[in-house]
Amino acid sequence: xxxxxxxxxxxxxxxxxxxxxxxxxxxxxxxxxxxxxxxxxxxxxxxxxxxxxxxxxxxxxxxxxxxxxxxx
Length: 72
Hints:
The protein is mainly alpha-helical. It is 65% helix and 0% strand.
């Protein structure tokens, strides 16, 4: 993961000057990549639910029981 200093350095090198928009875009991209990595870790650990389980849980306002995703 890039630190703020590394992100700023990368933006400066790409644009020839401090580009706040480039820095913000890089931060947003890194945040999205972190979310994707966390989601993939959940899938790998089997922390997934079928669509029907999720909808039923929302309708009944209770958390779904832990289970693996299944094919219908």
